[in-house]
Design a protein that fits this description.
It comes from Neoroseomonas eburnea. This is DUF2125 domain-containing protein. Pfam families: DUF2125. With 375 residues, the protein is α+β, with helices and mostly antiparallel strands. The chain folds into three domains: 106 residues, no CATH class; 118 residues, no CATH class; 94 residues, no CATH class. Helix content is 25%, strand content 42%. The protein is built from six helices and 18 strands. A six-stranded antiparallel beta barrel has the order 4-5-8-9-7-6. A hairpin with a 2-residue loop joins strand 17 and strand 18. Helix 5 runs antiparallel to helix 6. About 1% of the residues have low confidence.
Length: 375
Amino acid sequence: MTAAKTPPPRPRRLFRRTALGLVSTLAALLLAHGLAWRWMTGALAVGFSDWATMRRAQGWEIEHELPYRGGWPFAARLTVPGLRVAGRSAALPDDFGFDAPEFVLQIAPPRLDRLVLTMPGELRLRLGNAEILLGAERLEATLALEPGLPPRALDVLAERLRATTPEGPFEAQRVAAALSARSGMADAEPIVMLEAAAEGVMLPPAPASPALAAFGRHVEQARLEAVLTGPLPLPGALPAYGPAAVAAAWRDAGGAVELRRMSLRWGTLVGEGEMRVTLDPALQPAAAGTLRLSDAPAALESMAAAGVITRGAARTAQGIATLLGRVPEGGRVPQVELPLMVANGTVALARIPLLRLAPLAWPDAAVPQRAMSPR
């Protein structure tokens, strides 16, 4: 006897089963996504609350309205309305603070290891008695997140930046900075690295500023790559010992700032270079490096006309620059490479003293310079 054959499923029943399976799968995915979003926004809320609690324990004043979550389904976002921060730091001699209409923390695919901080609206910054109103078309900071470790990399980006300062308005088309830190096993290993760039800067019309008189308010471009070498102090050393003692210990351990690349286009001052900066026994800057200037005589003439340097120093430096200048291949403006030194408060170009620097005033200069160990 032949077994009866099972009739094939009807097309309508097959479609119904397939649709039901797809809907169930989609519902499960949405549920998992919703739970993940709720967990991530909860983690942002806890992290911000812990930060605020820690700062309040240090004497800071932190006020804000009730935070709320958002960003679903494409991002995990926590918005803190009406944030006001005020405090004091051992690194700053005056009180500081800022008011932000909104402070936004966000994590979004595909970089789930990056925390993006944005502050839309106009910010009010305070340092001592000075107040600055700051706004930008885009202003954000990005922190690299590592499990069990504090953030060790920070990127800052500002576009169409504008500020109202006590000296007047400030504007910049674009400002970007990248700061990264790592602990080194050897004292000579790089510890902190900084890359910064600014474009289309319009400086405030500060009264009686020789530099503005020499080169004008408009800075076309500025770039910097710097590395801080030498051991950093243990956490808490700055409040306990003060900036001067910490700086002295860092200097005694061989600390230095390597300016690996500097470039500037500011009026007639166009050039690039590199420099190594340290601190002398009086905790004043001492530096040695090389500058490569385009049309150096024009820049020196601008400085002399504005009273930044004397006419005699300008003529001597112009003669050396003209003698050593070379027109690069494919270029029209002569370039010259000259040694630059800073010692005992004097800036010298090609061993010709150009100007005197105002001394650094340390808030705790009376502290013994060897009062602590950098480790």
